[in-house]
Design goal:
327 residues, 9 helices, 31% helix, globular, alpha/beta, 13% strand, Rossmann fold, two-stranded antiparallel ribbon
Amino acid sequence: MPKWARLESEGVRAAEVNSISRLEIATKHRIVLCASDWIGMSGGDVPNTISILSDLSRFPELADRLQQGMVNFLFLGRAMISQSGFVSSLAFWDDKGPLIDTRRLYYSGGSQGGIAGGALTAVAPDFTRSVLIVPAMNYSLLLTRSIDFDPFASVLYPAYPDELTRPLLLSLIQNLWDRGEPDGYAQHMTTDPYPNTPSHTVLLHMAVGDHQVANVATQVEARTIGARLRVPAADPGRTTPFYGIEPIRSYPYGGSALVAWDIGPLRGNLGTPAAPFTNTAPRLGQDPHGITGREPSAQDQFAAFIDGAFIDVCGSRPCYAAGWTGP
């Protein structure tokens, strides 16, 4: 029998639950994965999103669907652990009994799933631990620092050509975006839980120099939810200082944590520079986005985390990935 049930989200489409790295995790750690689209910002929403960018007065359409996406995940999770849910059907049994252990549920999300998963974690009544891979909060901070924004900027900018107006517009729509992303829920994500909702413990994995999810936005989330930093976090000059994020001082450690993973500096066709300090996207070298989902030691870390313990898998050095072993 699998050890536990897991809500899983990598990107925006439920089909991405079948990615190779996730299948390795499922096999090694005996996990049943189940996912839903993150509607509002899923692949099926792209045509409407493009039209919204030409007229931002329609932005509530996107924000409202993001909330529905969270509701969908909450109901899916309940179906995984309820005796009247999936296990009530023989399709989820074999000759030894049910294939889903309904005693345990948690959430894991990467990229868009890591971002939206922060908001979901805050309102979730059925799980208490989640792993957010390359997450962030506050889209108005993130957008211009992400290469993923390029195709959307090609529509938004011609519709709003005044460069002084654009930051104001992003700040205004952020007030609506707060309905469906961690910026509106972070104060309740790990402490001060909502009524009838448990407190939650969260593991954040950050990819140093991420081209898609800016490190500064990941650090904002970690600082806001009170996550502690696994140290040594990174080699000098590899990322912006982790301002206001307290280090983990001793083990065993039972709280929320931030771990930085590094594929190393730019060296030929490998590595990536540190992210720029400006509100622009990194574009040089390899994109380390999602590397932790494929790194065996990172997988072991978050498998142990949802089982109740934070383990240090990197020893006395920063956490390296993709074959990089340090300077």
